[in-house]
Amino acid sequence: MTQQKKLTIWLVWLIVWPTLLFYLYNVLEPSIDGKWFDVISFAILMCIVAFFPIIVGETPIFFIQGISFAVFLYFGLFVEIVLTQIAVIVLMLKLRTGKEDLHRVPVNLTMFLLISIMGAAIFYLLGGTNGEIETFSFEQVLPIISYALAIIVANQILLHLLRMFMTGKTENFFSRSLLWDVITSIVTLPVGFVLYLLYIELGAKAIYFVGIPFIIISVVIMNYYATNKINHYLQKTSEIGHKLTGQLNVKEVLDIFVNEISELLEVDYTYIFDVTNSTETLTLIRFVDADNETPLESVTLKKFDGISGTVYGEGEGVYYSNRIKWEKKVQDSTLTDDAESVISVPIRRNEKIVGIITIVSKNKRTYEKYHYMLVEILANYLAVAIENARHYDSTKRKSERCPLTKLYNLRYLETYLATVFEDMKAKGVQENHSMILLDLDHFKKVNDSYGHESGNEVLRELARRLEEFVGDGNVVARYGGEEFVIFLKDKSKGEAQFEAEKLRRVISDKPFTLTQHIMQTSDPIEVKITASIGVASFPDDCEEPSELIRHADRAMYVGAKRRGRNRVATYEKVSEA
C-alpha cells in the first residue's frame, strides 16, 4: 500500500472516529445504572476472546460478536461500541502489528465502529429497544435477528471495499473470509443471545457461566482452523513434491520449486545456493524477486558468510521473525534492505549438504514454526528431484553423445530427423533441409603412422571445429569412425553446397596438431587433413529422413572420394552422372 493511502486512512480516522463517538455519546446519553462491574466483566471477557483469532488470508476473524451482541441488546449501542473498540485494540496487540502495518489499527477501529452503527440502525428502525426483553413476540424478535444479519453483511461489505482500496485490485466478494465469518457468527451469535437472556436472570454470574464456554469455543475454533490450515499446507507440499520429482530437467525442477513455494508461502525473495564441499563455498544458482525490482549479480559465499553460509556451516536450518533478531547473530549483505522474516534450510543428499534454500519476506512475523517445517520437507523433495534430474541428464547425454568427441551420435540424429519431419508434416508445410556428410581422407594412415591416440586427437579437434562452424540451430553428429554429418535446417541445396565448401576449407587450410604421437621426438607434429564431402537436400533429393543421410553418403563416396578426394559433391550431380 502506498504511503498516500496510509496517510488518507489516518486522516479519515482522526476525523471520523472521535466525531462519531462524541456525537453518539451526546445523542444516545448512555446509562449503565451502576452496573460498572458487569460492564467491566463483559469487557474482560471480550478481551480474552479477542486473544484467540484466526487469520483467513490477511483478515483476522475473532469471536466477540456473540458477547458484543449481548452487550448491545442490554446496554445499547454506545457501550457496545466502547467494549468492541477495546477488544479490537487487544486484537491488534495480539497480532503484534508492526510499524509498516500500523495503519491497520485505525482501519479496524473505524470499520468496527461503522459496523456497530449500521447494525444498530437496522435494529432501531425495526422498533428494537435495549434492556430486558419482555416477550418473544415477532415484533421483539425481528429487530434482534435483523441486527445479527446486518452486522454480518456490513462487515463483509466494508471488508470488501477496504481490500479494494488498499490493494487497488477488484476482488471476489464471496471469499473464504466470508465463509468463516458466517460460520463463526452462526456459532457465536446464538451463544451471545443465551448470554443476554441469562444475564437478565442471573446478572454478572451469567458472564462467567457463559464466558468460560465462550472462551473454549474460541480456542476450539482457532485450533480447528489451524489444524485445517496445516493439513492444507501439507497436502500442497505433497503435491509440490510430486511435481518436482516428476521433472527430468534441473532447470525445470528449480523453476517449479520457486513458483510453487511463492504460491504456498508469502515469499518476496528466494535464494537457492549450490554447495561445493571441496572448497566449502556456496554459489547462488537461482535468485527470484517477486516484484522483479532487485537485480542481483553472481554471488559466492564461504562457510559462515551470512545466514545461508551459517546454515551451511552449522548444518542446521533457522527461521527469524524479523530483521532485528537475525542481525543480532549474523550480518548478511546478500539480503535486501527491506528483508524481515527469513527461513533458511540445508538441502541434504546422502547425509551431505548439497545446497541451501533461503526465503525472505518483507513483513515481520510472516513465518511460524510449521512454515519452517514445510520448507524442510520441500528441501528434501528438491534434493531428490535435482538428483534424479541430474542422473537423467547424465544418462541421456551418455546415450546421445559420442564419448570421444562429445558430439551427438547417430541414434540421436535419427530421432531428431524423425521429429523434424513429423513436425513438418503436422504443420502441413514443406521446408528446405539439407544434410552434409564428410569423411576424412586417408585417416587410416594417420592411425598407422602416428598411433591411435593421435587419431583420436584429430577426431576431437575436428569435432571442435565442426561445432564452431555450425553454430546454434544446426546439429552436428559423429556418423561413425571418421565420418561426420551436419544437418542444416531451413537450408536449400545451393546454400548447403556453399556451406560445405567453406567447411572443406576449415578442415584443409589449418593443419592438425598432434601431441600424443608415437614418433621419436616429443615435439608436437602438424599434419594436413582433408575431407571428402557429400550434400543432399529435402525435398529435392528425397522424401524420407533416412534417405537424406543415405543420399549424402552416396554423394560423398561417388562424387568426392572417387573423383580425387578433398572436394564437395551434391547428390543431384551424382545421380545425373
From TrEMBL:
Gene3D superfamilies listed in its UniProt record: 3.30.450.40, 3.30.70.270
Keyword list, A-Z: Membrane, Transmembrane, Transmembrane helix
CDD domains: GGDEF (cd01949)
GO cellular component, one term: plasma membrane
Name the UniProt record assigns to this protein: Diguanylate cyclase (GGDEF)-like protein
PROSITE patterns according to UniProt: GGDEF
SMART domains membership: GAF (SM00065), GGDEF (SM00267)
Residues in GGDEF domain copies: 431-573
One Gene Ontology MF term: diguanylate cyclase activity
Family matches, as Pfam families: GAF_2 (PF13185), GGDEF (PF00990)
Membrane-traversing stretches: 6-24, 36-56, 62-93, 105-124, 144-166, 178-200, 206-226
